[in-house]
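step: validate -> pass
step: tokenize input -> pass
step: predict -> running
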Amino acid sequence: MNAPVDAVLHDVLVPRALLRDEAGFGGTFAGDCLRGDLLILEGRARALQPGTPGETPRIVLPALTEAHCHLDKCHTIARLGPVGGDLMAAIAAQREDKANWSEEDLSRRARIGLTEAQAAGCTVVRTHVDWGDTAEAPLNWSVLTGLARETAGLTLQCAALNGIDQHAEDDFCDRVARCVARDSGVLGAFVLGHERLQDGLTAMIRAADKYGLALDFHVDEGLRDYNGLETICDALISAQFEGPVLCGHAVSLIDRHGDDLARILDKLVRARISVCALPTTNLYLQDRRDGTPDRRGLTRLRELENAGVPVVVGSDNVADAFCPVGRHDPMAALHLATLTGHLDPPMGRWLRSVTVDATASLGLDPVFVDGAAADALRLSTAPDLAGLVAGRAPLFKLTDVLRETVQ
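step: predict -> pass
step: emit ->
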């Protein structure tokens, strides 16, 4: 006897790019989606069956993943005074604000950010955490890892953020990595023309292997002739590092062309690196001048995707010295990336950058619609996938909708 049907959600669209087994899921083709009635069996999305099409189908997709944000800095803009400038000016302004970072202040602001992310449809968030000058865990690390343990319905990863030169100093990297591993965190670094890049990379890879850590890099965040990204690739390939690696920003890749670009793209594939584009902050900070900027602070999204490099899109800074606006919503970041990167329809493939590819880039098992637990899925009443990316309708928990469904 067949298992009983727990629920049927009538007339839905499922993006084909978000299915593990498109051929076996059923439904009828509707552009880059499949359309039909969604069967929930034993609490999981099992198949699409033929149904009667309605006027506007609803869209079902996995919950979103916020792969790159800064919860220790967010929502400080109101107290910073006049700010605005390039990356280094933002770093200086935010450093001064650290005098205000009490446990209460950090917890309050981070909770605002997490509430925003959950309201946007996220169930996974990676936040970077400024580590500071000592190898001991700072206050902001303790606060955020504490929130990670107590936040229901959300996986919060904390990535320690140091300058790569710090990791090159004696046993600094190992001591940080030991703290990070204790709290199930991620080992990260800021890479921007540092002199001891190679030594720092060697120490980070060694520590990540020793403690079983994922790696995360802020790399080449500027429109200059930086090449930290290729150096990271070379180091990982040489070490045969197998852990997940996410490289954020990679803005200077926009200045690479022809064989030069092709060489780096090939190395990214061989090193199994995912690249996270962060359009909100990079567009705000890069190409600062007296007048209106005429260059885009954005990595090579389409070239990366065409080369087979997993592309991720994240929110980055929200209401702080690095970006006075923005919100913790990866779909909103994808919307901006679509405009600035000329990401043309069909949009289904780009939805992977805030769902399955974003989740996998953090070392977690990606959630595809087919076979997913109902509480891992979201639903939107947007008219189509372009409207979904544009934010024309919010994301709802599928389980909340199912409770209202009468069979």
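step: describe -> The mean pLDDT is 94.
step: cleanup -> pass
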